[in-house]
From TrEMBL, chains A, B:
Keywords: Oxidoreductase, PQQ biosynthesis. NCBIfam families: PQQ_syn_pqqC. The keyword Oxidoreductase applies. GO terms for molecular function: pyrroloquinoline-quinone synthase activity. Pfam families: TENA_THI-4. Its EC number is 1.3.3.11. Ring cyclization and eight-electron oxidation of 3a-(2-amino-2-carboxyethyl)-4,5-dioxo-4,5,6,7,8,9-hexahydroquinoline-7,9-dicarboxylic-acid to PQQ. This is Pyrroloquinoline-quinone synthase. It catalyses: 6-(2-amino-2-carboxyethyl)-7,8-dioxo-1,2,3,4,7,8-hexahydroquinoline-2,4-dicarboxylate + 3 O2 = pyrroloquinoline quinone + 2 H2O2 + 2 H2O + H(+).
Length: 247, 247
């Protein structure tokens, strides 16, 4: 390839990576098909919470790296959306609070989410790889790594469609997080995509952008790998270690 | 607990965490029992190589953080052992070269190790968690995180004992890495253990040291989790994604 893609072609290339989105992971397909038991679903909610609480710090790292005030003025909305803003009437007090309520609706007490006792090392390492990447990368690469949001509305819609039928024991009010994200993710991705199309213009840059998006897809997929091994294959860390002689 | 452990008690507590060492992971027990096929063994060799090449950079991060010249003068030997030193007659040109020869003996060409094409994202995230920890931590915490070496000679001995019987197609000369590490790891751990016993003296510090060693055990275990899912369960990343329409 010797000439760069047009913005429309480049966008198409980025969107085509959606075939690797974690909605295709067996853990998620089992979820949408109603094949998870309560413990498995709770494991997902508790592990995914580590991603939720890391995202505002990831976005703060991006703000830290970004010298462009106009970009920061828009990007900061992501932190407000997740943490909740200074105003007490900010929607649902933010995505983290909404996820805590999702946890409660699923039967995971908020203390157990907040103290991260259920977070698997493999999930932690994958999420930390994401925040470390954004911390160390150029801010435009950080923006690009957020573009898995291109594919997120599908995932939220699948959850909203399948959970009430398959998991009727979960209070429907607990699903508010997914409803909120349908609008938020749409708005966020418009901004992130426009910045990416604007800044990655050479052949090398566009190839690099695809690599970055693939890295982020690896993060999401690997999180589910850890959950699959622990909760579907019943192989959580140290599952075979005899503890009785040492406790 | 209100009084700190004596050095001997503290050492015993550290050593007791050896029950979580990755030699107990199903992937390793299969290895020692001769249950891995060639592709699975090669997968391990290629993924573990990412750990090998990261270790000298991890030790360089520790040198960077350490203001104590006497410690640095001893610790630097680890980098020399892995990378090979300036003198051309340094033993086997170091552990990385020895691992490349191990790879060749197992049928993995050195280019395939060096370009890291086989490295699974979950392995990369786990190893990167280790180097990032050492980079960001106090140097004494970095030292403590190296103490899985307490348990390493057992692993190397198990490999030297089981491989020739179970995997006779591997040239015995290729196992030199394990033979070298039997002596090197013994010497390294004496230094790392002495520093840890000397610096972690309060109740809180000793508890923290156990957490750090457990974190490092998590890194090693999680690496094998990723290999187990990919090579034993045949679930490498994106194994179920149809590529034909996109290539």
């Amino acid at each position: 390839m010797t000439t760069p893609w047009t913005p429309a072609e480049f966008e198409q290339q980025l969107r085509s990576l959606g075939r690797y989105y974690h909605t295709h992971h067996p853990f998620q397909t089992m979820m949408y098909a109603g094949k998870l038991n309560a413990a498995q679903l709770r494991g997902w909610v508790a592990n995914r919470f580590y991603y939720q609480v890391t995202i505002p710090r990831k976005d703060a790292a991006l703000l830290f790296n970004c010298p462009d005030r106009e970009v920061r003025r828009v990007w900061i909305q992501r932190i407000l959306d997740h943490d909740g803003g200074p105003a007490t009437d900010h929607i649902s007090n933010g995505g983290i609070e909404a996820w805590l309520r999702l946890g409660e609706a699923c039967g995971v007490p908020r203390e157990e989410l907040l103290d991260q006792r259920h977070v698997l090392p493999g999930v932690r390492f994958a999420v930390d790889a994401y925040i470390n990447f954004v911390h160390q990368a150029d801010w435009r690469e950080g923006v690009c790594s957020s573009l898995t949001e291109l594919f997120a509305p599908t995932a939220h819609r699948q959850r909203l469609q399948s959970w009430p039928d398959h998991y009727p024991w979960i209070d429907n009010a607990g699903l508010q997080y997914f409803r909120n994200r349908l609008t938020e993710a749409h708005r966020d991705v418009d901004h992130g995509l426009a910045l990416t199309l604007q800044h990655f213009t050479t052949v090398e840059q566009q190839q690099r952008a695809l690599q970055i998006l693939k890295f982020k897809l690896d993060v999401l997929w690997t999180m589910l790998d850890a959950m699959y091994l622990a909760y579907i294959q019943d192989m959580p860390p140290y599952f075979n270690i005899e503890e009785t002689n040492h406790e």
